[in-house]
Amino acid sequence: MDGVPTPLRCFNEFHSAEMFVDDGVESVTSVEQKKVERSIEEVISVYKQIHSLPQPTLLREQHYQYLKKGLRHLSDAYECLDASRPWLCFWILHSLELLEEPIPAAVASDVCQFLARCQSPTGGFAGGPGQHAHLAPTYAAVNALCIIGTEEAYNIIDREKLLDFLWSVKQPDGSFVMHVGGEVDVRSAYCAASVASLTNILTPKLFENTTNWILSCQNWEGGLSGVPGLEAHGGYTFCGTAALVILGKEHMLDLKALLRWVVSRQMRFEGGFQGRCNKLVDGCYSFWQAGLLPLLHRALFKEGESELSRQRWMFEQQALQEYILLCCQNPTGGLLDKPGKSRDFYHTCYCLSGLSIAQHFGNVDLHHEIILGREENRLVRGRRTFYHIYWSSIIYMHLILCNLLLLLFYNICPEKVAQAVQHFLRLPVPDVNKQPAASAGDRPEDSASTSGSADHQS
Ligand SMILES: [Zn+2]
Predict the structure, then answer these.
(1) What's the mean pLDDT in 423-452?
(2) Domain ranges (residues) in the chain
(3) Strand, helix or coil at 98?
(4) How do residues 52-62 score in pLDDT, each as one tens digit?
(5) Contact, 272 vs 286, CB < 8 A?
(6) Which residues are within 5 Å of ligand 1 (an ion), measured at CB?
């Protein structure tokens, strides 16, 4: 398949038959859906006029320049993300690693020093210097430091205090609040499990009851909601599922119901994913939704499912690439939600992450690529080690590589996860008998609110 120009879906005469039909009942939602489809039709029509060959191009150089500039300078438009600054570091650094662009040592060191200033004296990281610790920027900061992967980066993380912070946000029912005095949702369990496992401070006691709490977020639709009883949502579903994988309990989900829900979120005409039933397509769900399919593939494989493909994930990988490459690229760099929206670092990171998933299936032995367009569109095979273990499960079952199983769920490239895990496994787990000092969620402290992935309510 490599390098062979593939016919584009949008060049097919039957493509327009996939457009939304409202059965004569117009609603606010149907009007919006048709508007988006028209804008995509326009993009496709322009593409057809300019290009006779179906070779959509990933604008690597433009994305690189946009990302590089973002590490040093942000426009006024980012003022509203003042409480999400570690996220900006993570989104940019992860995008650069997917593009296989090295981070200059001086820049890496500056990012380390900045993140050090975001670390709270009480443990965990805040959205900016002098703010309160919060699980979302803690996840972003730990990931960013692991991507940098230097001794300087690792040594910034105060693991003992990080564990204190995690205990301070743990709730008796197994859930976590995002920050002391803050809200509970399934993102927090994922952020806590992710940073705890990456830095080797994960203890069974810390995650007591967490599995059951996350399982209670899976609803009748098959996906997971932010808290029990609400609507299923792509961001929360990824967070909950990935947290369960980290805890080794994903088999307790209704996997078939989850599979049915997520594959139904890929849009028939657009090719990208929506976040919730009856919502519009959005580039960032290329990761939150498509990222669930490798997790489900592995979980179903472990459950003995014999009908699984050894060449493809269970979604239309080419259609997703087509959506990202044709509809989500800003010609001057950066990626976006849908045509007509502005570029930003969040969508750049998650569109590229989704593109990588859509391009690569399998492992070293069974690796299968579907690269739409030019060879240069190939992103780093971000999850190679994970897939390798997935297909060769009896080979690598000692402790370090068990941790490597988790790498898909951090959304960091595998070599960096391996390096971080090896580094932190050499260090002892701080006081495994540690207990919560008090019911932290009841403390009346005020706290800076920091946005995380699933705050994006598309
Ligand atoms: Zn989005």
Answers:
(1) 57
(2) 9-16+26-425
(3) helix
(4) 777 899 999 99
(5) yes
(6) 282, 284, 337, 458
